[in-house]
Amino acid sequence: MMHYQNATQIAEYKLLIASMIYEYDLSRFPRLSTMAQKYLQDTQHTLQYLSISLTIEEPLIFSNYMKWFGQVAYYLHFHFPSISHHFDACKHIFSKVFEEDLFIKASKVFDQGVEVFRKSYDSTKPRDVIQSEFLVHLINMESDLAYQYIAMKMEQGSSIHEVFLEIFQPTLYQVGELWQQRIITVAKEHYITAAIQHIIGKLYPMLFANKSSSTHSITAVCAGNELHEIGMRMIADFFELEGWDSHYLGSNLAAEFVVEQLLSHPTDVLAISATTSTHLVEVKQLITMVKNHEALKHTTIMVGGKVFNDTPNLWKLLGADLFASDPKQAIRLANLFEGEAHA
Predict the structure, then answer these.
(1) CA 9, 14, 20, 21: dihedral to nearest 10 degrees?
(2) Which CATH number goes with the domain that contains 292?
């Protein structure tokens, strides 16, 4: 039996470790044979977050995941005693395959996370999600009516900034909540996100109609294979509205290609977005590569996204220069930071 010595191996061998946990749990509870695939999938997710939390040395990463997991487990009507047995099985296998030092560190973080899960599961209750007229149109897959709603708001005097911050952003949060409560499907969530992106695209002529010459520039990228790109796209658009040149690169771009882009098209700021902790290793890798490159050492690195909102000071641990919790703060901090840099 292989023994694991460091946190990165937990992620590297997560399927093997998850399989051992499943086999041990199955030996005690044969009924688990009917849910092998889901069991292995969920266990690998847990191991991934545990690995990242230990690698970054921030226990809150795993605790935040377990808080979310507790809420999802409640809405999916998971059998709580079975989950408790699963956590016990995890600890049993950890004690068998982790070297002592890793087991001590992992157990501390894991036990904290389990307690957070219990509290989250016990305290979660169905919440009413206020559905605006815009969101109702999208849920009903009426994208044309949703766009007409936005056009009407702008005709009534709403600015692009207000549409982004008071309609698009809250709608995306509400969609996440509706999915978590299983009120809408994953497919519907993806449709709504794509529809909002399409509507934003139709607003581009208004976005850039009166754009003045730029004095600053920003490169915006999503970490790893981040699926939630729309937030960073909105950030890039906000910077354009404020007179910046923005280069939006999207996601699924290796760190070396981002560096290559920055070398060929330098910008004052590099903005990196991550929604979940699973992309933090890629964030750290990209920040390190930029910071260590002589030609890019003056590039200001800003990070944002849900994982940073949920984990105070995480941005400092990863070596970023700035953290912004929303588009308005991103603009304000970037203008302030660049103003001081060029003073």
Answers:
(1) 110
(2) 3.40.50.280
